[in-house]
Amino acid sequence: MSTLELVRGWLRDAHRIVALTGAGISAESGIPTFRGAGGLWREFRAEDLATPHAFARDPKLVWEWYDWRRGLVAAARPNAAHAALAARPDITLVTQNVDGLHTLAGSRGVLEVHGDLWTLRCVGCGAERSDRTVPLPELPPRCSVCGDLLRPGVVWFGESLPERTWSLASAAAEAADVFLVIGTSSLVHPAAGLAARAKAAANAKVVEVNLERSGAGADAFLEGRAGEVLPALLAGG
Ligand code: BJW
Ligand code: ZN
């Protein structure tokens, strides 16, 4: 039996399926991943830019990166991997991505544990607004209420994940029979720890879909592009 057939059997028998996605699922939509080939913007790594410290030091630089990414995402379309998950509303979807492509593909109730690219939040008064303007007319953008700096509504290193979303994602992981880990390097915690929690809590089968194995501790590894593997794996479920 092929690994694909084996995992299709697990999915057929499962009562609760959870999928965790990362940047790799959007790679085929033309959005660069954070790490690996093409993972750099100018000479910076995500770890240099996605931090409160980087923003405090140089908000314009950090905003230039986000403004560039907002432009890429605005022009991108969901791919076959997003569509395959959207066609399975029985699967609880947790994403580390801030691009909104799962929702655009038709998934509902996506648990976006690292926030989203279109929310702007004031560092002074906390006011939030959704703004899809690309490019933003002024970098860094400023709050219309108090004049302080606006920041992207995403989760940076050293920051807590949105409490309610994270607790829903944790509870789903701990109740899962099958936990799919798709297109993530499994390096960034606490999201990277969800697969191990699923295994520890209910002995979930952990299945990884990636170009290369990460440290997700998968019971089954499906090597390949998410846009090719997921339609074959999830169709007819
Ligand atoms: C394909 C493909 C194709 C390519 N098909 N596959 C425990 C242990 C160690 C460290 C920590 C820990 N707990 C906390 C930490 C610290 C830190 C952390 O994890 N650091 C590690 C890097 C060491 N975590 C945090 O700080 C988190 N907060 C936290 O824990 O709060 C509590 C706390 C408070 C105060 C002090 C300490 C703790 C927050 C993490 C926030 C991460 N934020 C970012 C930016 C979000 C906004 C934005 O987008 O700009 O999230 S960083 C970046 O990495 C982004 C991503 O969501 C995240 C994960 O990346 P992802 O998705 O895995 O992408 P890549 O590029 O790494 O991998 C792509 C994969 O796809 C590869 O494997 C490819 O092979 C594959 N692929 N094409 C299928 N077609
Ligand atoms: Zn304000």
Describe what is shown at a glance.
The protein has 237 residues and is of the alpha/beta class. It contains ten helices and nine strands.
Quote the distance from N terminus to C terminus: 19 Å
Q: Quick one: CATH superfamily of the largest domain? A: TPP-binding domain
Elements, N to C (H/E): HEHHHHHEHEEEEHEHEEH
Please tally the helical runs, counting DSSP H or I stretches of 4 or more residues: 10
The major pleated sheet works out as: 6 strands, parallel
Say what oligomer this is: single chain
Helix residue percentage: 25-40%
Strand content: 15-25%
The radius of gyration computed from the alpha-carbon positions, rounded to a whole number of angstroms, is 18 Å
Bound molecules: ligand BJW, zinc ion
CATH topology of the largest domain: Rossmann fold
Overall body shape: elongated
Structural class: alpha/beta
CATH architecture of the largest domain: 3-Layer(aba) Sandwich
Count of distinct structural domains:
2
Overall pLDDT confidence: 97
- Can you tell me the residue ranges where pLDDT is under 50 for at least 5 consecutive residues? none
What does this structure look like?
It is built from 10 helices and 9 strands. By secondary structure, it is of the alpha/beta class. It has 2 domains: 147 residues, TPP-binding domain (Rossmann fold, 3-Layer(aba) Sandwich), CATH 3.40.50.1220; 79 residues, SIR2/SIRT2 'Small Domain' (2-Layer Sandwich). The strands form 2 sheets. Strands 3-2-1-7-8-9 form a 6-stranded parallel sheet, sandwiched between helices. Strand 7, helix 9 and strand 8 form a beta-alpha-beta unit. Bound molecules: ligand BJW and zinc ion. Ligand BJW binds next to helix 2 and strand 8. InterPro entries: DHS-like_NAD/FAD-binding_dom, NAD-dep_sirtuin_deacylases, Sirtuin, Sirtuin_cat_small_dom_sf, Sirtuin_class_III, Ssirtuin_cat_dom.
